[in-house]
Amino acid sequence: MILGGLAAVVVIAVITTAVLVTKKLTGRKQVNPADVKVPEYVKVDLLTPNKYSRPQTPLEKVNGIVVHYVANPCSTALENRNYFEGLKDQTGSKTTSASSHFVIGLEGEVVQCIPLDEVAYASNNRNSDTISIECCHPDETGKFYDSTYQTLVNLCAYLCVEFDLKPDDIIRHYDVTGKICPKYFVDHPEEWETFHKDVKNAIRILKK
Q1: Model confidence at 66: pLDDT above 60
Q2: What mean pLDDT, rounded, does the chain reach?
């Protein structure tokens, strides 16, 4: 019994040390994505599990948020969600894999497609450690309506607080692969800097 008790203490000590070391190395705590709830304004409409858009691969850690644009002007959040859903019905040798955790619509509405503790097919080699957000836009410039932009700021700030992230942990798809996405923020890097500042202010408000 004594040996068993000592072994348990050693295991707990090792786990505690590992957590502390991880926090020291990353500068933040590691949060289990399964423990994070989405905001009340998010409509949860999860995709049907399938290998093309919701493979149910566990997302064990979140080190960042990746912002995208849908590249389909005037399409809605629900239409983009349904596009991801339809990928499950693909046949033949040429198939597409795509999805996103969230889609923000033209009026600022948000649809959740993938649970926070599952991988989405959105950000290439960063799928394994990031949350993805697709944003709808009215025209080819890729500029978001104010309603979409403000929701993006609020959602990113919320996720930063929940996952102990900083505004600099929010990146563009462009920063991962060089793809021109989200187009407006790639074409106007100064607006991307402004976005980071707006998220920082929103985080400050949430933490009050």
Answers
A1: yes
A2: 90
